[in-house]
TrEMBL record:
Residues 98-120 have a biased composition (Basic and acidic residues). This is FAD-binding domain-containing protein. Keywords: FAD, Flavoprotein, Monooxygenase, Oxidoreductase. The lineage of its organism: Eukaryota, Fungi, Dikarya, Ascomycota, Pezizomycotina. It comes from Neoarthrinium moseri. The keyword Oxidoreductase applies.
């Protein structure tokens, strides 16, 4: 990074959006520091595989540039054969036509059939762990692990991050909150206007060797179980032909349950490993042999459970702009897993803010206001779309009168 006589951009969190922003700043030779509460990139399970939309891919390509994007693209899996999900009845193993299914009359209106292809007619995806490692490359000297941002203070000519232990960062030109749904930066800068709700729906992520997916074959699949009295359970997985015969590769799957279906001990969202795997195995114990191996043969250490959250469905709220502080990704617009919209929108945040900073050679008065004005438009549209999909997939209902349950 080129030395400059200016203060760094401070970034809270080292998730995908934060690291993509860091890569943008690195490419523009703008000094930055990233503060992450975990002790290393390997500290926690990396979560499910992400499906990249056209907008998400475009954002990543604009940040990485023609020098680095081809290597990222090569790392992505490309699945053909369908413009949408192929649905399978988890109890019979038979494919079913979901296009004739009529939504309930009281369900909020959501988008129709999802179009999964994003480039070259393929469904493009990559694991969170692989993506995070790729984004981190070159940024390692500027990441401070084990630093949990709990807030910030403005100075006469900048801003400092305040850590959970009471210590403070060096002075920066600006602070970007990218530390997820529990972001203290978001809560402080918006004076509590940014709210995240627990939808009541729950999810489990898992992985299994490619051999467990042989009976499914290539495609993007939705496995559906409507037999449980509490509600619907479904699993989404992407079977990539290029990796099907590689015994060293694991495919991931993501299970979702309507409110009340998946009930972990103490409703602890941080359950990982065997306890999460045992929940998935219990829920699928009576599933058909065509799909049951995905769970029977799963890598138990990679299993993870989480609560499914969402921002206010009406969109990103307006708060008085602070020229020195702004927020990106889940910290400002948390979304359900439906459609993979959340991460792709976060990538747009990183590309937009990074591009604005690059154009000015670093922080300048008005950058955060310009970013927030544009982000609110596409961010609000994305939240509404994600929520609309979730009402049919997860059976969730929230609105501005609901009580925020994520602090």
């Amino acid at each position: 990074m080129a030395a400059q006589n200016r203060k760094p951009v401070l970034i809270a969190g080292a998730g995908l959006a934060s690291l993509l922003l860091a890569r943008s700043l690195l490419r523009s030779s703008i000094p930055f520091l990233v503060f992450e509460r975990d002790q290393s990139i390997l500290f926690r399970a990396q979560g499910y595989r992400l499906r990249l939309s056209s907008e998400g891919l475009d954002a990543i390509e604009s940040v990485l540039g023609p020098e680095e994007f081809p290597r990222f693209w090569d790392k992505c899996g490309k699945t053909g054969g369908a413009k949408g999900f192929a649905a399978v009845d988890a109890l019979t193993g038979q494919e079913v036509d979901e296009s004739t299914k009529k939504p309930s009359e009281d369900a909020p209106k959501g988008p129709g059939r999802e179009i999964l292809s994003s480039r070259d007619g393929k469904t493009v995806g990559i694991s969170r762990g692989d993506m995070r490692a790729l984004f981190l490359e070159g940024c390692e000297p500027y990441v401070r692990w084990g630093h949990h941002v709990a807030g910030y203070e403005l100075t006469s000519d900048g801003v400092r991050a305040i850590f959970k232990d009471g210590t403070k960062s060096v002075e920066g030109d600006m602070l970007v909150g990218g530390e997820g749904i529990y972001s203290k930066v978001a809560k402080q800068v918006s004076n509590g206007k940014i709210k995240t709700y627990d939808t009541g729906a729950r999810g489990i992520h898992g992985q299994a060797p490619t051999a467990a997916f042989k009976e499914l074959g290539e495609g993007v699949w939705r496995l559906v179980d409507n037999s449980k009295p509490q509600g619907r359970v479904f699993t989404i997985t992407n079977v990539r032909p290029g990796d099907m015969d590689d015994p060293d590769v694991q495919f991931g799957w993501t299970m979702g349950g309507q409110p009340g279906v998946i009930q972990p001990p103490n409703d602890d969202f941080a359950i990982i490993g065997k306890p999460a795997a045992d929940m998935a195995k219990a829920l699928t114990a009576h599933w058909h042999p065509r799909v049951k191996p995905l769970f029977d043969q799963m890598n138990e250490s990679e299993a993870a459970f989480w609560k499914i959250t969402c921002s206010t469905p009406s969109g990103v709220p307006v708060w008085p702009n602070d020229p020195r502080v702004t927020v990106i990704g889940d910290a400002v617009h948390s979304m359900t897993p439906a459609g993979g919209i959340g991460a792709n929108t976060a990538f747009r945040d990183s590309a937009l803010l990074g591009g604005l900073l690059a154009a000015e050679g670093g922080w300048k008065e008005g950058v955060t206001a310009t970013y927030e004005k544009e982000m609110r438009v596409y961010g609000s549209e994305a939240v509404k779309m994600s929520y609309g999909m979730a009402t049919s997939q997860f059976g969730v209902t929230i609105n501005e009168n609901s009580s925020p349950t994520v602090g």
